[in-house]
Design goal:
Number of helices: 3
Radius of gyration: 22 Å
Strand order of the largest sheet: 2-1-3
Shape: elongated
Order of helices and strands: EHHEHE
Helix content: 40-55%
Distance between the termini: 51 Å
CATH superfamily of the domain at 36-104: Ribosomal protein L7/L12, C-terminal domain/Adaptor protein ClpS
Largest sheet: 3 strands, antiparallel
CATH topology of the domain at 36-104: Ribosomal Protein L30, Chain: A
Structural class: alpha+beta
Length: 105
């Protein structure tokens, strides 16, 4: 085995420098108003899936009710996708058409 003592320092060493690290893209998860989903169901979804307190969940639910959408949280893409799928599954099981989407923050 020989080591190259004269290795060119401009060649990357495979080490990622802190300045090269990039924060992941973040996504807002939104609930959308409809005429059928019960308000208490929306509050329960917000508390169970998004870990909101009762007060936070009621405030978000009222935003959905009054303005048509409400932000449940902002997450990295994979977590946002998972939360959207959890809401869809829970709504489907309960027989509600609650729509949950995500958009880049």
């Amino acid at each position: 085995m020989s080591q190259n003592q004269n290795a060119d320092p401009s060649i990357e060493s495979g080490v990622t420098l802190e300045s090269e690290l990039k924060e992941p893209d973040m996504y807002r998860v939104l609930l959308h108003n409809d005429d059928y989903t019960q308000m208490d169901f929306v509050v329960r979804v917000l508390m169970d899936i998004f870990r909101k307190s009762n007060e936070e969940a009621v405030a978000i639910m009222m935003s959905v009710h009054n303005s048509g959408t409400g932000v449940c949280g902002v997450y990295p893409k994979e977590i946002a996708e998972f939360r959207v799928s959890q809401v869809a599954q829970r709504a489907r099981e309960a027989g509600f058409p609650l729509l949950c989407t995500m958009e880049k923050d």
